[in-house]
Amino acid sequence: MAPAGRAVVIGASMGGLLAARALSETYAEVVLLDRDVLPDGPANRRGVPQGRQLHVLLDRGRQVLTALFPGLDEELTARGVCPVDLHGEVHWYNDGHRMRRAPSDLVAYGMSRPLLEQVVRERVHALPGVRVLSGHEVTGLIVTPDRRWVTGVRVSAGVRVPVGDRGSAGGRSEFTVAADLVVDAGGRGSRSPVWLAAAGYRPAPEERVEVDVTYVTRTYRRESGQLEGLLGALANAVPGRPRAGIVAPQEDGRFAVVLSGVLGEQPPTDDEGMAAFAETLPAPQIGELLRTARPVDPPARMRFPASVRRRYERLRRLPEGHLVFGDGLCSFNPIYGQGMTVAALEALLLRRLLAEGGDGLARRFYRGAARLIDPPWQLSVGTDLRFPEVTGRRTLRVRLVNAYVGRLHAAATTDAGLGAAFLRVLNLVDPPTRLLTPGRLVRVLRGPRRAVARRPVGVGRV
Ligand SMILES: Cc1cc2nc3c(=O)[nH]c(=O)nc-3n(C[C@H](O)[C@H](O)[C@H](O)COP(=O)(O)OP(=O)(O)OC[C@H]3O[C@@H](n4cnc5c(N)ncnc54)[C@H](O)[C@@H]3O)c2cc1C
């Protein structure tokens, strides 16, 4: 069918851009509205504060993005982005166990978040029928009198000036944009719960897992011989040592280092403090890098209080003509790097549902999204539940899986096949059940059990 009608997307970050890509095959016009004045190049902006923090695009996300935007791999490489073999070129320390490396087809692009967003934004701008209205804030939904359909959005645009005694936002113009479909990709702070409540809808049940994560990211000049010649390093947080670190290459010859703390643990932001914090991690390469590499910019700090999942699929009444997408639907603990990949999978789902046609798009979308969010949500929340301070249901399944994966990390110090299987699940390429094939079960249970203590546990809340 020829594209027809108009879709409006609230938010032009990764979620909104990916939604627009899916919508552009069905709608003649796709209008993306973002309250930020969007930059012309790869720059940080206010509406995406997490853009200053290290972002890793999982291999599954890379696969989907390159399917949606053919040639994206080559374009990123041409812009100085470095492909990294995730199993062959990274020092992995899972629960203190050094994973045995082996070449693999799992690839992560070492790039900054603003660059990825810029490249995708350029691709989406070039799609027929797509218009991006930068500096346009959506302030509400337009709903039919019977409240069954969302038919557009209210928009406020222009330069913010102090509100005068007219009681209105002087200097800003207010108008409406009619739409056959409104997709809210406004992020974790999506206003849809408030707007839908004003239209008489019940709030979507919300699941919240408090993790109190603090990120500190800084970039350093990349020079030969660093990281023992490899391209990345990672040490995860474990109960008793709620600290983690990741190093990944960035475009323009830099390494980005993120130090993170969970459950209130705070990485410092001064040179000595950061190096000392990194030296308490099991991956000695991270501390060595911080002691010797030259910083390029000041450190950026960000706090992430809780993972939040809004279960729209559980609502009995939903308006048609409106969807919530991306982080507005589920905002994952960033440590697992899942957000952009899940948004990309939602874009594939939306594209398929639109191509199928038919009624009840909202219900079909939320049901499908719930099915694709379940595995990464269980993976991240299940792993967070290893920390006794994290509140949530520790079912027998969660406890068994965590005990098993702990044994798998020990066995992967010598068995590269087990490490590869784990990384494929972590990258959302394979389902978690792949870790439980009979052959792997035997190898995990026969493998070494004890943690290999590489470093003494350092100072802090341990
Ligand atoms: C510290 C941190 C680290 C992360 N690391 C990773 C990682 O390594 N890998 C990964 O895949 N994901 C990561 N994520 C998650 C990732 O950033 C998001 O999943 C991704 O940006 C998609 O989110 P989104 O587009 O739905 O929302 P956002 O990125 O939050 O964007 C929302 C957009 O909507 C706009 N907006 C909001 N309200 C309005 C309105 N009313 N009108 C108009 N515009 C509006 C904002 O300006 C913004 O552009 C991380 C997140 C955090 C917090």
Automatic annotation (TrEMBL):
Lineage top rank: taxon: Bacteria
Keyword match Oxidoreductase: yes
Coiled-coil blocks: none
Transmembrane segments: none
Keywords: Monooxygenase, Oxidoreductase
Signal peptide: none
Matches recorded under SUPFAM superfamilies: FAD/NAD(P)-binding domain (SSF51905)
Molecular function terms from GO: monooxygenase activity
PANTHER family membership: THIAMINE THIAZOLE SYNTHASE
The protein's name in its UniProt record: Squalene monooxygenase
Annotated source species: Micromonospora sp. CCTCC AA 2012012
